Amino acid sequence: MATSDFWQRVSDSVSSPQDWQGAAVHRNVRAPQGRAKVYMALDVITILLSVVAATIYRKHTGALIGARQLWHGTLVHGRPMGILLGLVCFFAVSLLVVSRRLNLYVPARLNNALHEQRLSVQACLTSGLLLTGTLYLVHAEDISRTIVLVTVALTTALLSLRRLFSRLFLYHGYKQGVGTRNVLIVGTGPEAQALRHHLESLHHLGYTFKGFIELPGATPCVAATPGNVVGSLDSLFQQVRKQFVDEVFFTAPYDRSLIQNALLQARVHGVDLRIVPEMYDGLTWNNPVEYIGQFPTIPLHRSDVPEVQLVLKRVLDTVLSAITLVLLSPLMLVVAIAVKMDSAGPVFYLSERIGKKGRAFRCIKFRTMVEDADKQRAKVMHLNERDGVLFKISDDPRITHLGRFLRKYSLDELPQFFNVLRGDMSIVGPRPPMGSEVREYKLSHLRRLDVTPGITGLWQVQARQDPSFDSYISLDVTYIENWSIWLDIHIILRTIGVVFEGTGT
To answer: 419-429: buried (b, 16+ CB within 10 Å) or exposed (e) per residue?
Structure first.
C-alpha cells in the first residue's frame, strides 16, 4: 500500500528521544475551555427542549405542527418567526452569561452539590426575570405567560437534574479510580499537612495524594513521615512523571525565581500548578481564587486538555466498538469454537496490562498459544527478535497452528473491543504494555502512559515489523503530541488495509 503525503508527514515528524522534552516548550498552553463549551451546549439544548415542551403543553399541539406554525408565523398570532426565535435566543444567551458569571462551568470539584444546585436555580430565575422584562419592554402581551413560566420552570428543573446526575456519575467514577487527579504537595509544613488532610477527607473532590516535595532549607514537619516525602524540589518534575501527576500545589513561600522556573516546567510537562494565596507577590496578579473544598488556592497554570475532542473520541470508541461486536459476533463465535477445538486450554487469553496513568487492567484476546505459554517464556527468551524491552518472535514455537492464522489477520484482537466498551482501552492509541516492560522503562518512556492505550495505533500501521524500541516509543509520542480525531480516523482507515494485507505475526 502506497504511503500518502499525510503518512509521510507523520513519519517525518518522528523525533529522536532527545527531542521529545523540548518539543512541548513551543506549544501555546491555554486554560481549558472544552468542558465549558460542552456544558454550554447542553444548556442550550435543555432550553430548546423546555420551550418545545411548554408550547405543546399550552397549545395542545404536536411538535411537528408547532414547528410548522412557528415557521409560518401562526404559532402566536401577529408575531413573526424571527421575533419568537430572537426571544428564545435572548433567554439562552442570558442564561449562559449568568451561569458563567456564577462559575457554573468550572470543574465540578470546585463546587459542592448543594451550592451548585442553588446557583443553577439562581441563574435560571435571573434569566427568566430578564426575559419577562424584555417581553414587557417590547409590548408582547399576546405571548402566553404560561409558556414563559413553564419554560423557565422546566429549564430550572432539567438543568438541576442534569447537573445532579452528572455529579453522581462523576462521583461513581471517582470511586472506580476514573477521572481522579494525582496531586503532589510542595512543602511539609502545617499548610501542606492541612491541605493533604482536606484532599483525602473530601472524596468528592476526586484528588489522589501522591506525596510531599521537601523544600531545601525548610524545617520538616513532624507529621510528614519519611514515606510521604517522595523527593526534593530538584526532583519535582521527575516525580511528576513517575507518579503521573496532574496538579502540583505549592503551600510554602519560597524564592520567586524558583516558582517562576516551576511554572515554566509545568507548562512543558502539561501539569496544573496552584499556590496558596498571599505567598508570591506579583505572580498571582489577576489570578482568581478557586476553592478546593474549603481550601483557597490560586491557579498559576492549567494544562491544555482538548476535552471536547476527548468526549468525541470516547463516543467514537463506544459506537464503533458496539457496531463491530454486533456485526462480527458470528465470526467471533466461529473463532471461539475453532480455538477450543484446535488445542487444549481456554478460548480467551487474559493478560494484565498497564493502561493510562499506570492503572492495571485485564486485556482480553483469543488464545493463540499453548496453554502454558507464559511459563515457557523464559525458555524462548534467547529467540527474541526485538531490541530494548520489547519481546517478539516471528516463529514462536508456542503459537498454535490456528493461532498463526489469527495473528496474521489480527483476529485474535477482536475481543479487545470489550475492553474499549469498558473504558480500559481506546480503538486508537499506544499498545498497552505488560508490567514487566514498564518496570524497564526510562523516565521519558512513561510519556506513552499519559493516554488510554489502543487496539491499533501509529506504530501498528507505520512500523509494525520494525524491531527498534526507540522507533516504537517515538511513534507513540508523536501520536500523543499530534493527536486529533482526524488522526484517529486516518489510523483506523489505514488499519483496515493493514489487516487485509495480513502483516500480523
So the answer is: bbeebbbbbbb
